[in-house]
Design brief:
Elements (H helix, E strand, L loop, with lengths): L2 H7 L5 E3 L22 E3 L2 H4 L2 E8 L3 E6 L3 E6 L9 E6 L7 H6 L1 E2 L5 E5 L2 E5 L8
Antiparallel strand pairs: 1-2, 3-4, 4-5, 5-6, 7-8, 8-9
């Protein structure tokens, strides 16, 4: 097979693991022999196709991500596969987006968005945690 056909067959997948899954007291599988089976929450391919970079998971199982059109969005996990369940919150200007800084972007538990830019960190607190 050619590289082009191999690339066309690749599918982007995203699985969410609860951090409690990594504790041996809450997961008896961790004391078992390899391979380990950790419970995960798959994200439907329709939603994954819209995700450029996953940024974090907030309370109430809300996945925060940068979409393919440079919007910071949320999606409530376990809500199905409809793209209409994606909520856009704010747009990131193109001059903020480069591969180095995007990989370092993060969302804090209170919904504060952190984005490194030009040697500094942009902190966005707009009350959106109430919406998220």
């Amino acid at each position: 097979t050619s590289r082009a056909s191999m690339k066309a067959r690749r599918t982007k997948r995203l699985r969410i693991f609860e951090t409690s899954s990594f504790s041996s007291s809450s997961n008896p599988n961790l004391t078992a022999t390899l391979p380990l089976m950790l419970p995960s929450l798959p994200v439907h391919p329709t939603i994954v196709a819209r995700i450029a970079i996953p940024l974090g998971v907030l309370a109430k199982e809300k996945l925060v991500f940068l979409d393919n059109e440079s919007w910071i969005c949320t999606f409530r996990l376990r809500s199905g596969d409809t793209a209409s369940a994606i909520h856009r919150h704010f747009f990131l200007p193109r001059d903020w987006l480069n591969s180095e800084s995007l990989e370092l972007c993060s969302v804090m538990p209170d919904g504060t968005f952190l984005c490194p830019r030009n040697g500094e960190v942009a902190v966005i607190r707009s009350g959106v945690e109430l919406d998220w």
